[in-house]
Design a protein that fits this description.
globular, alpha/beta, 6-stranded mixed β-sheet, 565 residues
């Protein structure tokens, strides 16, 4: 009976598909017919009528059909939207992939433990040499997937080492959107009683030995992955300089305190370290000859169309998307992948900003994403943005500190942050950012410069609540306070997702403080351990706001460069 039912459904789908073919042939601009066709084919592909080979044949025929529409009227959006759907079906991976981890696979951390402060100090390799970080609650272990997933727990991810306590590790999604996230973190709490100076301990991680990690689309993570890193234990009696997450004197943000970082390639080849940051997914690629041939053919089609109509926005946009897809499919992990078409894609989006100003903000966002991918995935590109800082107003009493400075790039959106899990000090000032979504993935971040952007309120800083290592923050000269938010939408726990904020946290001073600002500050900062905050140049920066900030951040020592009593 089930077989008969399946055959009936297949026959009905095929009949409906033929009907849309008839309507499209009558009028290539029939958007409803194209849309219904995509829905029918999605159902057929999901039920795998005919298997993989049938899918490839079906998709090839669909490309041929839509190609007729594009050459008939290259400015009609109906065919282009359908072509975009086909591209998604062509390159979409079946199931999530594990892309990045920190500590990186095969790396070595030098660990010191201070019994008086119960803090771990770790030296570890980065693309600009050895850096240092202090962890007061434990050493973070970070996993980053290609898409949001749920089900990351002690059953689906096992961590083993002679140093670990017997109780199960608790994994936390780094996301404001509930139990699904691309980035997950747990803390390795290493008991000092087991430390033996001079010993090296291996930590082994196995991901997905059992099923349970699932994407939003319902696909299982089916690529069991083994990772490991080592902990080299040293002894110490006092906490030494701890770099990114210690503020002993006010941090100087001015450009005068920075100079290009000199890297000795003989001692530390950047390219080798960049390779080690990513997970080798070569065994997991859904990269077939058909996919490559399809992308090559469609790129050729777009180039032919642009020879006929040089300023066709749809042809330029589709060509950009195809080139991005081809780069992503051209083998290996993300960081090993040589982006062959990045400069051409950037130029295409620049062209689109000029010829289609009504959608300029979208094109600027895409330009930003591609630029950040370029900066973070290649040796020469990355080295240009690595800087030293030194001065009496710097961290740790004038000791040099290494920064990644992505300032003044006209960025309107953040991306490729999974390639920057090692970053402790980040300067993304003098850009066009209205949101910092995704920044929460940087679980080692100690110092952050967000000044001279377009952040409109304190709630835009919400992702920072997930970064427990953050100690110094500069949000000066934004638009904070120029636009208030409707704070009543935060009155219920569901709107706060997993936040621990309660009404009592913000309403106890409602009679004497501005409730709107009180809500915003609580949502943005409560639970952080900031020691330095700079907010000058924002409309909200008045005495009332400063009092609220000092109440919400009891650890604060410096506000706009002035000592807080």
């Amino acid at each position: 009976m089930d077989g008969i039912t399946a055959d009936m459904k297949k026959s009905r789908d095929e009949d409906e598909l033929k009907f849309t073919t008839k309507k499209i042939n009558e009028n290539f601009s029939n958007y409803s017919a194209w849309h219904n066709r995509s829905a029918i084919l999605s159902h057929m592909l999901k039920n795998k009528y005919g298997g993989i080979s049938a899918k490839e044949q079906e998709m090839t025929e669909e490309y041929e059909l839509v190609r007729q529409a594009l050459f008939t009227d290259s400015e009609d959006q109906s065919g282009w939207f359908y072509h975009l759907w086909l591209l998604g079906q062509t390159i979409a991976p079946i199931g999530p992939k594990l892309e990045m981890s920190w500590p990186s696979n095969g790396s070595q951390l030098i660990i010191d433990f201070n019994e008086q402060s119960h803090a771990y100090v770790s030296d570890f390799d980065t693309p600009f040499g050895t850096d240092r970080c202090m962890f007061s609650e434990g050493i973070p272990l970070v996993l980053h997937f290609s898409e949001p997933v749920k089900g990351v727990n002690a059953s689906t991810v096992t961590v083993s080492s002679l140093l670990l306590e017997s109780e199960s590790l608790v994994w936390r999604p780094i996301s404001p959107h509930g139990l699904q996230a691309k980035t997950w973190v747990t803390l390795l709490k290493l008991p000092s009683t087991k430390f033996r100076a001079g010993e090296t301990y291996k930590v082994q991680i196995r991901v997905a030995d059992t099923l349970g990690i699932i994407s939003l689309n319902g696909y299982n993570f089916t690529c069991p992955t083994a990772l490991d890193f080592s902990l080299d234990v040293h002894t110490m009696t006092t906490i030494r300089s701890t770099g990114g997450n210690s503020v002993t004197v006010p941090l100087a943000w001015e450009a005068d305190f920075f100079f290009p970082l000199a890297i000795d390639e003989n001692k530390f080849p950047i390219e080798l370290h960049l390779d080690s940051l990513s997970i080798d997914g070569s065994g997991n690629q859904e990269n077939t000859r058909w996919q490559q041939e399809t992308l090559d053919r469609e790129i050729k089609v777009c180039r032919e169309l642009l020879e006929i109509e040089m300023d066709s926005k749809w042809a330029k946009l589709t060509l950009a998307r195809l080139l991005i897809a081809q780069d992503m499919l051209s083998g290996g992990s993300i960081l090993r992948n040589k982006r062959m078409h990045t400069d051409e894609v950037l130029q295409l989006f620049n062209d689109l900003i000029e010829i289609d100003p009504s959608h300029a903000e979208y094109y600027k966002d895409q330009f930003s994403l591609i630029l950040l991918d370029k900066v973070s995935s290649g040796k020469q590109n990355l080295q240009e943005y690595l800087w030293d800082s030194k001065g009496t107003g710097s961290l740790s009493n004038g000791e040099r500190n290494k920064w990644l400075r992505l300032h003044g790039l006209s960025l309107s959106r953040l991306g490729s942050l999974e390639q920057l899990l090692w970053v402790q000090r980040l300067d993304i000032s003098h850009n066009r950012l209205q949101s910092i979504d995704g920044l929460e993935a940087l679980q080692l971040l100690g110092c952050l410069n967000l000044s001279h952007n377009l952040l409109a309120n304190f709630t835009a800083l919400g992702p920072l609540r997930q970064i427990k290592t953050l100690r110094a923050l500069n949000i000066a000269d934004n638009k904070i306070g120029a636009h208030t938010v409707n704070s009543t939408r935060f009155s219920f726990p569901s709107a706060l997702n997993n936040s621990s904020i309660s009404n009592a946290d913000t309403t106890r001073d409602a009679d004497e403080e501005n409730l709107e600002i009180s809500w915003e500050i609580t949502i943005a900062f409560k639970g952080l351990h900031l020691r330095q905050l700079d907010i000058a140049g924002n409309p909200a920066n008045d005495e009332k706001c400063r009092r609220l900030l000092m109440k919400t951040l009891p650890s604060l020592k410096w506000l706009d460069g002035t000592s807080v009593n």
